[in-house]
């Protein structure tokens, strides 16, 4: 039987993260969400956009996940650094082609061993609520969510 590399998250894990994140959004009666899951190599593993989600939600969700993965830090820490290290974060944005969005809602998905397996970005409601849904999705997949704040 041939084995193929997963580069972090499997498709089944990514789809499970999205399903649980969207379910959390419906439970909280949030605005329509878009969820992007990246593997450890920064490639899109899965994406879903709820009916009614506004035009640029996929790009914003991707930017939240991409920024977290790019620096290995959760979105909350990226937001703090955007405030205190504006020059660095501007350079990061330039290097990333504008894809890094340093706000809550970008969450690293880690194994129990602390190894980053991928990242989740959600956009649609306020960033703090997007983050709640990302954490719910990651934890439902049996992974550890890293938001950028101490647990």
Average of pLDDT: 93
Strand-pairing-aware structural class = alpha+beta
| Poorly predicted regions | none
How many domain units? 1
User: What distance lies between the first and last C-alpha atoms, to the nearest angstrom?
Assistant: 41 Å
CATH class category name? Alpha Beta
- The named CATH superfamily: Haem-degrading domain
Strand content: 15-25%
Shape call: globular
The assigned CATH architecture is 2-Layer Sandwich
The total beta strand count reads 5
> What fold name stands as the CATH topology?
Beta-Lactamase
One letter per element, helices H and strands E, the order comes to: HEEHHHEEHE
What summary fits the major beta sheet? 5 strands, antiparallel
Our Rg estimate from Cα atoms comes to 14 Å
Kindly report the spatial arrangement of strands forming the biggest sheet. Answer: 2-1-4-3-5
Question: Helical amount among residues, as a percent range?
Answer: 40-55%
Features:
151 residues, alpha+beta, Beta-Lactamase, 5-stranded antiparallel sheet, PduO/GlcC-like_sf, Heme-binding protein
Descriptive overview:
- Pfam families: HbpS-like.
- InterPro entries: GlcG_carb_metab_protein, PduO/GlcC-like, PduO/GlcC-like_sf.
- This is Heme-binding protein.
- The protein is of the alpha+beta class.
- It has one domain (11-140): Haem-degrading domain (Beta-Lactamase, 2-Layer Sandwich), CATH 3.30.450.150.
- 44% of the residues lie in helices and 19% in strands.
- It has five helices and five strands.
- A hairpin with a 4-residue loop joins strand 1 and strand 2 (44-49).
- Helix 3 packs across helix 4 (86-95).
- The chain starts with 10 loop residues before the first helix and ends in a 5-residue tail after the last strand.
């Amino acid at each position: 039987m041939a084995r193929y590399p997963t580069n972090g998250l499997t498709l089944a894990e990514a789809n499970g993260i999205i399903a649980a994140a969207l379910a959390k959004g419906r439970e909280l009666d949030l605005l329509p969400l878009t969820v992007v899951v990246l593997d450890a190599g920064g490639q899109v593993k899965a994406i879903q956009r709820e009916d009614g989600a506004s035009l640029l939600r996929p790009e914003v969700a991707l930017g939240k996940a991409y920024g977290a993965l790019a620096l290995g830090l959760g979105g909350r820490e990226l937001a703090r650094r955007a405030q205190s290290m504006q020059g660095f974060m501007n350079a990061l944005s330039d290097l990333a082609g504008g894809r890094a969005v340093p706000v809550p809602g970008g969450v690293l998905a880690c194994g129990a061993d602390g190894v980053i397996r991928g990242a989740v970005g959600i956009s649609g409601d306020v960033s703090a609520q997007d983050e709640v849904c990302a954490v719910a999705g990651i934890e439902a997949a049996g992974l550890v969510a890293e938001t950028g704040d101490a647990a």
